[in-house]
Structure formats: structure tokens, C-alpha cells
Amino acid sequence: MPARSPVILNQLGPIVGERIAAHPSRPTVLMHEAGRSPWQVPAGVEVLLTRPLIGWEAAPAAPPPGWGNGLRWIQSASTGMDFYPPWLLDGAPVVTCARGVSAVAIADYVMTAILSVEKRWDAIRLSGPEDWRRETLGSLSGKRLGLAGFGAIGRAVTERTLAFGMTVGAVRRSGWAEPEPGVEPFDRLEDLAAVSDHLVLALPLTAATRGLVGADLLSLAKPGLHLVNVARGALVDQDALLAAIDSGRVANATLDVTDPEPLPAGHPFYRHPAIRLTPHVSWSAPDFDRRLADRILANFDAYARGEPLRDVVDAATGY
């Protein structure tokens, strides 16, 4: 049974920290000290609230001496766990993620990307009367959206695309024990790519999915495909994607993630007219911190009662 007033190390900022500090269990909330590595957890801390891109990428290959002593629970602000060292998931403490917290924001981003391509949003912008011309715009109605991955993000995207009259197909690792309303199940990503007008990558980066979208898959894609990646850059063989776009097989790519991030100066993706790069912001929304705090507090209620936590990361799959 957890202590009544646990000590928490907060690496997520003041909004989350203030909400957690107000919990009825009256926890002691410590703020992360500048200059300390995220794995340098003071003695006596039971709960670690952490996030990627605060130094975890420089973590040692093996857990440092004393790592995990006294820790019972680690909560990540991200859904994907690939930013963390493998030893973070190796046994105790239990690790939970923020699965679904950003699903609505990411789904809105996906719809913006699809509409921008179909409606040729950049091409029809006028800078003077000399640009005035008639253009034929596309439509979402009747187009097929393919989803690689079907979790909270996939469901949120599906809800929006169905409202626009699109058809939706999806593949997912866990298979299809029960039908999903409005979604055609596919067993193979190759088959889905072959019939999709817009293909959205919304699956975790693991050893099995790294480089999943490569030359072989892209050669089977429906001509004119628009690829949208809101997951991880390493899912895509970027050289193969560039070749597929230059050959005309793939018409457009909207990439919120790349490998590495950011891409180095001079990378051809920056200047390619068929590629839109955004700086890994699809998750962003004005209420993100509130939604994250709500999720953590719900888990903290369970923790304080000694009950199972929600969104526990499976060490075997990495998500």
C-alpha cells in the first residue's frame, strides 16, 4: 500500500505540479532541479512525473547505481516510450504513459493536413490580381483514409473523417476481435496503402516498426498517395520517401516528425514543394497541460488507494 503522503518528483512543470500538490493525500511535490539529469532521482521519491526531451536521450546504457530505489511509479507525459532508455521499463517501478491525452489535437492536425492537400490551400492563396485564376479543388467525400495504428488517435481521426464522407480502413497490431463502426479492417499495411488516398501513421516506434514505410511499401502505394506522419520519424525510410515523391508515386507528405529532429540544414525535405514539415507540434493544444493533469490525477487517485493504474506500459512491446 503506498504511503499516505508520497514524495513526488515533478519534471512536468508548474501547472501539473500545482494540481498534484492539491490532491487530498497531501503529497510532497519536489520540482526538478536545473542541471540535474532526469534519472537523478533524490532518495525518498516514490513517484516520478517525467517527459521526453529533457535529457533522457543522453541516458547511460545501463541503469545508474541506485536507480529505482524507492520508486514505485513513473508517469510519462508522452504516449510513445522510445525516447527513454530500455532499462526504464525493466521491471519495477510500474510505468504509465499519457495514452490518448493528445488524440483530439492530433486528429485536428491530421484533418488540417488532409484538407490543405485536397483544397490546394497554398496554391489558391492570392498575393495580387495577377494570381487570380480558376482552380479545381479536391474533395474529402468519397476518398479513403488509411490508418496505420488504431488507438485513441485513430478513433479520433475516424470520427472526423467519417463526418466528411470519407471511407476509413485501418491496420493494427492487436488484430480485429470486434468490428469498429465505420472502419474497414485490413490485415496488411501493404494492402491498405494500395487503396488509400491519405495514409496516416499513428503507431508506436518499436524494433518491429522502425523503417516500416520503405521502398517496398511505397512501390505498392496508390498513385497520388498523401502520407501523414504524426507518430515517429524513424517509421519512415526518408530516402525512399523522397524517391517515391520525385517519381510521382507519392504526391504529398505531411511530416510532423522526422529522423533526426530537427533535420540538418540543407536537407531536401525543407525545400521540397510536395513536403510540408512541421516541428513536432501535432500534439499541441491550449488545454494540453490541463488534460495531462486530469489523467495523472485519475491515476494518482488509484495509486493513493492501492488500486491498479491506467495506461501501464507493456515492457515486452514498449508501449
UniProtKB/TrEMBL annotation:
CDD domains in the cross-refs: 2-Hacid_dh_15
Domain D-isomer specific 2-hydroxyacid dehydrogenase NAD-binding: 131-282
A molecular function (GO) term: NAD binding
Gene3D superfamilies to which the protein is assigned, alphabetical: NAD(P)-binding Rossmann-like Domain
SUPFAM superfamilies xrefs: NAD(P)-binding Rossmann-fold domains
Entry keywords, A to Z: NAD, Oxidoreductase
PANTHER family (UniProt xref): 2-HACID_DH_C DOMAIN-CONTAINING PROTEIN, D-ISOMER SPECIFIC 2-HYDROXYACID DEHYDROGENASE NAD-BINDING DOMAIN-CONTAINING PROTEIN
Record's protein name: Glyoxylate reductase (NADP(+))
